[in-house]
Amino acid sequence: MERQAGKAKTASRLVAVYDAECGWCRRAAARWASLDLEGAVHFTPLQDEAALAQLSLSAEEARRAIHAVEFGKTYRGAEAAARIMGRLPSRRWLARLLRLPIAAPLAEAVYRVIARIRPRKGCC
């Protein structure tokens, strides 16, 4: 995965912040990066303090959920995942599905459960 962190390089791309110390998060980011044929997403680990500062995110906040920053707006949790998938040609359909009014709250609830059990599963 690409690890550059310059404003000029990431200004037009969505920036996804994930936990590189979590096996689950690392695998998800690697999978999404492999599907990013257009180079539309810049994956950066929350352990990159300079990148977090550029994005105005604290490590504490970034550790709680995946974050996506797009055109200066920050998304977290299931909405961040949907934003990332919306930039991946083979996952755009899933992003649209996750944003449906009936599916979005369910997706967020599922995301919160996964985020809560992630440390107990030994992946963080």
Which labels suit this protein?
alpha+beta, disordered N terminus, 4-stranded mixed beta sheet, 124 residues
Number of strands: 4
- What is the radius of gyration computed over CA atoms, rounded to a whole number of angstroms? 14 Å
Spatial ordering of strands, largest sheet: 2-1-3-4
The major sheet is characterized as: 4 strands, mixed
**Helix/strand structural class:** alpha+beta
Q: Helix segment count?
A: 7
**Unreliable residue stretches:** 1-11
Relative strand content: 5-15%
Instruction: Give, in order, the helices and strands.
Output: HEHEHHEEHHH
Query: Roughly how much helix do the residues carry, as a percent range?
Result: 40-55%
Shape: globular
Mean pLDDT: 87
Distance between the ends:
20 Å
Question: Could you write a compact summary of the structure shown?
Answer:
The protein is of the alpha+beta class and 124 residues long. The protein has helices spanning 7-10, 23-35, 49-55, 59-64, 77-86, 92-98, 103-117; strands at residues 14-18, 41-45, 67-70, 73-76.
Overall description:
- By secondary structure, this protein is of the alpha+beta class.
- The protein is 50% helix and 15% strand.
- The chain has 7 helices and 4 strands.
- It has helices spanning 7-10, 23-35, 49-55, 59-64, 77-86, 92-98, 103-117; strands at residues 14-18, 41-45, 67-70, 73-76.
- Strands 2-1-3-4 form a 4-stranded mixed β-sheet, with helices on both faces.
- A hairpin with a 2-residue loop joins strand 3 and strand 4.
- Helix 5 (77-86) packs antiparallel against helix 6.
- The radius of gyration is 14 Å and the shape is globular.
- It starts with 6 loop residues before the first helix and ends in a 7-residue tail after the last helix.
- Mean pLDDT is 87; it is low at 1-11.
